[in-house]
Amino acid sequence: MTDAAASIDPPRNSSRLGHLSVQQVDKVYDPDGAHVVALEKCSLEIPAGDFIAIVGPSGCGKSTLLNILAGFDTLTGGRVLLDGEPLATTDGSLSPGPDRVVVFQNGALFPWKTVLENVIYGPLVQGRMNQAEAVEKGMEMLAQSGGLDRIARSYPGQLSSGMQRRVEILRALVNNPRILLLDEPFRAMDTVSKTTMHQHLLDIYDQYHKTVFFITHDLDEAIFLADTVVVLTTRPGTIKLRLEVDLPRPRNRDTITSHRFLELKQQAVSAVHEEARKAFERGERELA
Amino acid sequence: MSDATTTSRVAPRKRRIPRIRWRGAASIASFFVLWHLAVVTGISGFAELPTPVATLRAFFAEYITDAGYWHSWLVSFKRVLYGFIIAQIFGIPLGLLFGTSRRFRDLFFPVFELLRPIPPLAWVPISILFWPTNESSIVFITFIGAFFVIVINVYDGVGSIRNEHLWLARSMGASRLSIFRRIMLPSVIPSIAVGMTLGIAITWNVVIAAEMIASDSGLGRMTWEGYVSSTPEVVLIGMISIGLAGFLSSLTVDWIERRMMPWQRNR
């Protein structure tokens, strides 16, 4: 296990793992009772190393899709492949794994562990590294992430939500995942912190070049970050629009005011609003 | 992220001279002054009581060097300690079982709920009949006092374990045992702490009453004997001692709790 630490960051463009294939996925909650169709015939191809953002109104099944990919929820139709291996099928088995770690919207660092202990939890629990190796690796990653090593001994409760999210992303990355699942990670943050976090996430993306599956309801955020923006319809969730974002990288502040950015936004915005309105009207009906 | 760094960097400013809490001191002083005035003016009910000065004089003259008095402290503390610790040893696992195993809960929680409303002192007669020595029956009653509140709090704490934490641990490959030890237990520690805080207060309540009813030693017994022998100084010294003992116990439990939860220190 001497080369365990080295295997964490494969050189860019080498292995090219993380090709995700979502094929005709259906998800029905409570099929015998209320029969709520959360996802219907949902298909997506995500090439290895791509950054994909899923946009849609609340309750459109974005999180359901993410939970299926993470192995936290079952699907009722179709299948999901990761690099050709079945990751979720209709047999009802769950398969969470360190190759797909989630960063949750409300933050889910272990509050009783220090920053460093949180980051090295995965490698230790998998027995992939011993304590000394893990600490070394963890400190190195923290240091590389904008000097987070200076808060290694702090507890999450002492940090701002932005810092917490940065640590959480590292906690996922240390497992050398094939795909990074982000469930509206910046939802509760103010605009200024959000902008900083976007830049930080793009830096991380450049550095590690993992496939990123990013859920949001913020279209600007989606276009700014992603290679591909997918708009989901309101329940039952299915693909409404797939938008290839050809904005050059690295992206920065000027990107969001560029002509091309606005063009892309224009293409997507009516689709998003149409679905949001449907969701809203249905919400009114369901309440009535 | 300069906004984020500041939160962890701010250290509480230290005072060179410890601030005296004037209001607190004044409140305690006026309590004794009022007690004194009530006795010397002979307000009804107070006529039988000694003044605080007389009480203090009796304490220093007779009790501070009296081995019997300190023995009462020791005896009561032991009973509280044993009852409290045994309640933790049985209560924490039982609360965890109720919280994690549906089958176990369905089988045993109804019995638990049946026994829970019975006040600890109602257990005194059966306890004396059941246990071979007087001492063990008092420890048992003390145990009962803390046991139920601890179980209920731990059981409740299991519900506060976050699904995200369990999912994350599973996806990172943690075994069931590891999830229990490294995720579920620490999640429940704050609830265990609440159970301890409540438990220690109840054990003192219970031990004093139990001693008055069913024992020939301890601070509770000493206080009661003061009444029986018409020496009100003893009653007052007993009461103040019990108050101090409870206060010291709470401080200790507080200190242990802070040790148990280092992550909550700088909140």
User: How many separate domains of chain B?
Assistant: 1
**How much β-strand is present in the residues of chain B?**
under 5%
- Judged by helices, strands and strand pairing, the structural class of chain B is mainly alpha
Sketch the major β-sheet of chain B: none
Number of strands of chain B: 0
Gap between N and C termini of chain B:
21 Å
CATH topology of one domain in chain A: Rossmann fold
C-alpha geometry of chain B: globular
- What is the CATH domain class of one domain in chain A? Alpha Beta
CATH architecture of one domain in chain A: 3-Layer(aba) Sandwich
For the secondary structure, the number of strands of chain A is 10
Rg of Cα set of chain A = 19 Å
Sheet of most strands of chain A: 6 strands, mixed
Q: List SSEs of chain A in N-to-C order.
A: EEEHEEEHHHHEHEHEEH
Residue fraction in strands of chain A: 15-25%
Q: Average pLDDT value of chain A?
A: 86
Order of helices and strands of chain B: HHHHHHHHHHH
